[in-house]
Design goal:
The structure holds 2 protein chains of 2 kinds. Chain A is built from 12 helices and 11 strands. By secondary structure, chain A is an alpha+beta fold. Chain A has 2 domains: 3-88; 108-348, Bira Bifunctional Protein, Domain 2 (BirA Bifunctional Protein, domain 2). In chain A, the strands form 2 sheets. In chain A, strands 1, 5, 6, 7, 8, 9, 10 and 11 form an 8-stranded mixed β-sheet that branches. In chain A, strands 2-4-3 form a 3-stranded antiparallel β-sheet. Chain A starts with a helix and ends in an 18-residue tail after the last helix. Chain B is of the alpha+beta class. Chain B is built from 20 helices and 43 strands. In chain B, β4 (45-55) and β5 form a beta hairpin. The longest helix of chain B is centred in the middle third of the chain and has 16 residues, at 368-383. Chain B starts with a strand and ends with a strand. The relative contact order of chain B is 0.06. Classes of the chains: A alpha+beta, B alpha+beta.
Chain lengths: 366, 813
């Protein structure tokens, strides 16, 4: 073994023994630094004869390569070990809870109204609105309920002491039907609208609250008849409950603003829920429940809406939004809808991203 | 309206069973609310003979019976009834039977150690009466082992909801007519015996109010005996839910329930002078049969004699002249009262009665004589006596109404093609006549020629029918609504067009944005208690306050969304919630023009309790503060499309808010888009809330609509080619200077170069003189064509400082 070989072996051994980056650096300076022994050898090359140089040169360069590579490798290994050690010391307990953000919710009434808007938009219905503090002309008279009409008494109306400038009594609308009149007067015909909103009746128990939500539907066009009403309700209810086995039963009834008038029952099946309680699930014909009132718009109402009843006819329907929500999503006490109880809202509410769409489905499964 | 099957069969010849009748009634629009079929409930009870009765070994009051139910094998039954004894025949409920009175299912059991295989029943237990002193005793010939339901015989009772347009069906006869028209049997004609008067009516009868009482028919029957009405009539009345009173009263009730024809019977001895239908005078009063004293006015029609009012016409009779067991001579009143007047009077006096229900809906104006004949015949039969001649004062409005009808309308409006002949038959069976009008006289039936347009004569009992659509309804409901074929609406070409208005889109977007930010949407009442509403009434022209609220807690329409949310907050805090984020989108109700309301779309929110819980990272729980309310308000306004960069924070959030920790967000000095902040402790105390609370209210109606054409394409993307430069400035400013003012000034110092400025530190205390604060602002400078050189940066900095100095700021060294 030559001196050079020995020196290289010594240096590599020293490197292997070095345990800190500083020690490695000292070795580097001793070998490759300005006064390092390899640097000295390289300088010495300049004073050699060409023959010597071609013999020694490659050897010296090989040593430099080997030592230089070893230094880099050792340095990297030590740095990496040091980093690992540092990271190991920085270990944290990830079973601790992460920060949370509160989860908001959409009220079932809003969600169902959005669902209705989506379904009816596909059938070409726009959404109309009207005031909740109404006058008795729009709420009753224009809907073919003159002052002494017995149906007025059935409405359990909330009145204000006020009259408008035309001397009409102000009241809380008892149904969304005044929107029919307002929309016909404002927009004429043809028309396809739904009108969801708050309505008020002086009534209170588990299924009646003095305020509740209704959605009105109105179609005015040429040649509209009861068959269209039936199709519209069937199509809507099948889409809303996302079931094809929805069966409707139409019963003759009476509303002053429609003629003929039709009460609509929907068939249900009793299904045992997870809690062991039998629930009515819409679909099938095991039993019938009353769902909504409807009919062909009375000629007088069309006239009150400023349209010619010989040219235009149509149908209207009204259904409880809260009731639709209860039937679809399983709440059993209407009063809880209006408590603002955060636990109830969390339980029955919907996520911000549960936006009803036709492609994704309008309903949100539990 | 309740009636029994046997009563229906008085008027309808039918072989249909209870189920068929019930289904048909519902399909006709006479909705069945229930069928009370006692036989169904009693089918598990048997006629049984007590063979032996021994004393119970363990109980003094019990006996152990051996009972024969015809099965050959006597059953052992424990019984506590004092009348249980060997040889008697009673009713035994077997295990599995459900006791009608309490819904209890009978089981085989041991009573005080003795096996019992059923229960001997009392009248009350079977729901057949009130008797509970002992068990039922049946006659000796009762067949042992027969189902008690069969032995007893049963008369199912229908309960039918009658819509207000069908007063003709507020009598069993009218219901029978509908069923007959629908093919469920044959209607039996009404043919009461006509009793001619034996003497002139001793009492003068008049109507002085032809508007309220166009017709008043009457007669006297003298020498009656007013005892109990016969069993059959009592059974009918009971099935209708009426209590039998006395023969005379029961007869009038019976005729009303059977034919929808109310009438009144006066004890003639209590009357003096002419009996007159007239308007009451203001201040006149009467005590009605329900014991209530009513004060009358001149809008109300009454029946009166020389001494005063005896009857609120068509609504309720007076106490004084009602029939009693002493009545010997009776005056019958069969009148026609104008429906609207009855409705008004009934509403004004808050008197309800079966008579009012019928008169205000309109009774058959052509049925007065028949009604009187029916009453007379029944009274003579039951009470005896001798009838006077009939006095007919006035004329009922019984002129025939004619409706022009094109049977093709049934298809055009009803959506179903019913052959003309069937339409004719349906109408005919319902009492409509299809005729032709000639010279104001009704022509002959024209059933052979049903072409063309029909003139349909409406029966007098169908006051509700006044147009062709009503006839379509008659045809369709009898033919069957279920037969109407479902017909699709036309569909516009292509994909459905969007329908939501800008306001609807805004509402939906803001709602979901709020939920996405962690707020729970509530829906609270539109009405508030007075005090809670008053607390938020900010001079909006007066609150809307109900005349007839359902309770004082639901009296006044909300002028703000916050009070309802505060009440919900109280509800939640009382249930132990320590953090609450609630919002609601709805209307607040203000006064508008012309006496109308002004209902404005509003978003309210409350943040109560802890914003963040105590935690291993953050330490203590952090309560909500005014900036949390501001953050929600700003974020939601941004989602609503409000120009949030241009909003100013000003004061005057309202007296409901903490005066130093609240503000308004305004677009210009006047347009308030939102208010936010901590609520005033005094207000919270009023709402019974102990902890501080942040709230915000967004006036969504005030957000200006977006200007310019709405297009999908956005402006071209043009990022600045050069990197922005940031420079920090620290100023000492007067403590009262709003930081936003300083930022705005700084930002305006160089409208080209400065693209952003924000406060990154605000400090008061050590090193800052009293009455001042230190604000540090990071200014972002954006070079356009070339990078800033030192001179340019220096010039901009000088402009920034100069702008700040104008507000009294001093650059900190």
């Amino acid at each position: 073994m030559t001196d050079l070989d020995q020196q290289q072996a010594d240096t590599l051994a020293a490197l292997a023994a070095a345990t800190t980056p500083d020690a490695v650096e000292a070795i580097r300076v001793g070998a490759l630094g300005k006064a390092g022994w390899i640097s000295a050898l390289l300088k010495a090359l300049g004073g050699m004869t060409p023959e010597q140089r071609s013999a020694e040169g490659p050897r010296i360069h090989a040593v430099r390569e080997a030592v230089g590579g070893a230094i880099t490798a050792r340095k990297a290994a030590l740095e990496s070990a040091e980093l690992e050690a540092r990271l190991a010391a920085g270990r944290i307990d990830l079973s601790l809870p992460a920060p949370t953000t509160p989860r908001g919710s959409i009220h079932p009434v809003s969600q169902v109204m959005d669902e209705l808007a989506e379904i009816f938009a596909d059938m070409g219905f726009a959404v109309s609105t009207g005031p909740e503090i109404e006058d008795d002309w729009h709420n009753f008279t224009a809907l073919n309920m003159p002052e002494t009409h017995p149906a007025r008494a059935m409405h359990d109306t909330f009145y204000f002491p006020d009259e408008d400038e035309a001397g009409r009594k102000m009241l809380l609308r008892t149904h969304t039907s005044p929107v029919q009149i307002r929309t016909m007067l404002a927009e004429g015909a043809p028309l396809r609208i739904i009108a969801p909103g708050r309505v008020y009746r002086s009534d209170s128990d588990a299924t009646h609250t003095p305020m509740f939500h209704q959605v009105e539907g109105l179609v005015i066009d040429r040649g509209i008849h009861l068959g269209h009403l039936k199709w519209t309700l069937e199509t809507f209810l099948k889409a809303f409950f996302e079931r094809d086995d929805i069966v409707l039963r139409l019963r003759p009834s009476y509303f002053p603003f429609t003629e003929p008038s039709v009460e609509v029952d929907v068939g249900y099946t009793l299904v045992n829920g997870q809690d062991g309680k039998a629930r009515r699930v819409l679909g099938g014909t095991e039993g019938w429940m009353e769902l909504l009132g409807s009919g062909m718009v009375n000629r007088r109402v069309i006239e009150m809406g400023g349209l010619d009843p010989d040219e235009w006819q149509g149908f209207a329907f009204g259904v409880g939004v809260d009731r639709l929500a209860m039937l679809k999503y399983g709440m059993d006490d209407l009063r809880a809808f209006f408590d603002g109880d955060a636990r109830w809202l969390g339980h029955y509410g919907f996520g911000a991203l549960d936006v009803p769409t036709l492609s994704g489905g309008t309903g949100v499964r539990a | 309206m309740k009636f029994s099957l046997s009563w229906l069969k008085d008027h309808l010849d039918t072989t249909a069973d209870v189920t068929q009748i019930a289904e048909k009634l519902t399909s006709l629009g006479l909705e069945i609310e229930g069928v009370d079929d006692a036989s169904a409930a009693l089918s598990a009870f048997r006629v049984a003979r007590v063979l032996t009765a021994e004393k119970h070994p363990q109980a003094d009051k019990l006996q152990v019976l051996s009972v024969d139910v015809g099965s050959g094998q006597p059953l052992q039954v424990v019984c506590g009834a004092p009348n249980a004894r060997a040889g008697m025949i009673g009713v035994l409920g077997l295990p599995g039977a459900v006791v009608p009175a309490n819904g209890m299912e009978l089981r085989k059991s041991a009573i005080r150690g003795v096996e019992s295989n059923g229960m001997m029943c009392s009248t009350r237990e079977l729901g057949l009466g009130e008797d509970h002193d002992g068990i039922i005793e049946l006659p000796a010939d009762a067949p042992i082992g027969q189902s008690f339901a069969d032995y007893q015989g049963s008369d199912p009772v229908f309960d039918v909801a009658i819509t207000p347009n069908r007063p003709d069906c507020m009598g069993v006869y009218g219901i029978a007519r509908d069923l007959a028209a629908a093919g469920l049997g044959t209607l039996k004609p009404v043919a009461p015996a006509r009793h001619e008067g034996k003497f002139a009516c001793p009492t003068e009868i008049r109507t002085d109010d032809p508007e309220g009482c166009p017709a008043f028919y009457g007669r006297v029957i003298r020498g009656v005996t007013n005892g109990a009405s016969p069993e059959w009539m009592q059974a009918r009345l009971k099935s209708a839910g009426q209590r039998p009173i006395s023969a005379l009263v029961d007869v009038t009730n019976y005729v009303m329930l059977a034919y929808g024809r109310p009438a009144h019977a006066y004890d003639l001895a209590q009357l003096s002078g002419a009996v007159v239908a007239r308007r009451a005078s203001d201040g006149e009063g009467v005590t009605t049969l329900n014991g209530k004293h009513s004060l009358l006015d001149r809008s109300m029609t009454v029946i009166a004699d020389a001494n005063g009012v005896h009857d609120v016409a068509g609504i309720m009779g007076g106490e004084h002249s009602g029939c009693s067991e002493h009545t010997r001579d009776v005056l019958l009143e069969v009148a026609y009262f104008t429906p609207a007047n009855i409705a008004r009077t009934g509403q004004a006096l808050a008197l309800t009665s079966d008579a009012r229900t019928r008169f205000e809906r309109g009774v058959d104006p052509a049925f007065l004589d028949t009604g009187l004949d029916l009453l007379t015949a029944l009274i003579l039969e039951i009470c005896g006596g001798e009838p006077s001649q009939v006095i007919r004062a006035g004329t009922p409005p019984a002129a025939a109404k004619v409706v022009g009808f094109d049977p093709g309308l049934t298809l055009r409006l009803g959506g179903i093609d019913v052959p003309r002949r069937e339409q004719f038959q349906i109408l005919n069976k319902l009492g409509f006549h299809v005729g032709i009008l000639t010279n104001d006289e009704f022509g002959e039936f024209m059933a052979d020629n049903l072409d063309g347009r029909w003139d349909v004569i409406v029966p007098t009992w169908r006051g509700d029918v006044d147009g062709a659509p009503d006839l379509v309804e008659e045809v369709v409901r009898v033919h069957g609504l279920d037969a109407v074929p479902s017909t699709p609406l036309t569909r516009a070409d292509g994909v459905a067009k969007p329908t939501a208005t800008p306001v609807q889109r805004l509402e939906r977007r803001v709602r979901r944005a709020a939920a996405a930010r962690g707020l729970n949407e509530a829906v609270t009442w539109s009405f508030l208690p007075q005090a809670e509403a008053d607390a938020f009434a900010d001079g909006n022209g007066g609150l809307w306050s109900l005349t007839n609220p359902i309770s004082d807690d639901m009296k006044v329409m909300r002028p703000s969304l916050l009070p309802g949310l505060l009440m919900a907050t109280r509800h939640n805090l009382a249930r132990g919630l320590d953090s609450l984020r609630l919002f609601e989108i709805g209307r607040r109700y203000l006064r508008g023009d012309g006496g109308h309301s002004d209902e404005r779309l509003t978003l309210g929110g409350v943040l109560a309790g802890e914003k963040s819980q105590r935690g291993w990272q953050a330490g203590r729980a952090v309560p909500f503060d005014a900036f949390d309310a501001k953050a929600e308000a700003m974020a939601l306004l941004a989602e609503a499309g409000a120009p949030v960069d241009n909003l100013q924070v000003l004061g005057e959030a309202g007296s409901q808010f903490h005066p130093g920790q609240s503000g308004t967000l305004r677009l210009g000095p006047k347009t308030v888009l939102a208010r936010f902040g901590m609520l005033h402790p005094a207000l919270l105390k009023q709402f019974d809330i102990a902890s501080p609370l942040a709230a915000f209210e967004l006036f969504l109606d005030s957000i200006p609509a977006k200007k310019g054409a709405s297009v999908f394409a956005r402006p071209a993307y043009a990022p600045p080619p050069l990197q922005p430069v940031r420079r920090d400035f620290a100023f000492l400013v007067p403590d009262t200077l709003p930081a936003a003012d300083l930022v705005r000034s700084v930002r305006g110092a160089d409208k080209v170069a400065i693209v952003g400025a924000r406060v990154f530190d605000a400090f008061k205390g050590a090193g800052v003189p009293d009455g001042q604060k230190s604000l540090a602002i990071e200014v972002t400078l954006q070079p356009v064509d070339k990078s800033f050189d030192e001179a340019a940066l220096k010039a901009i900095a000088e402009r920034v400082v100069a702008a700040a100095v104008k507000l009294g700021a001093v650059l900190r060294g």
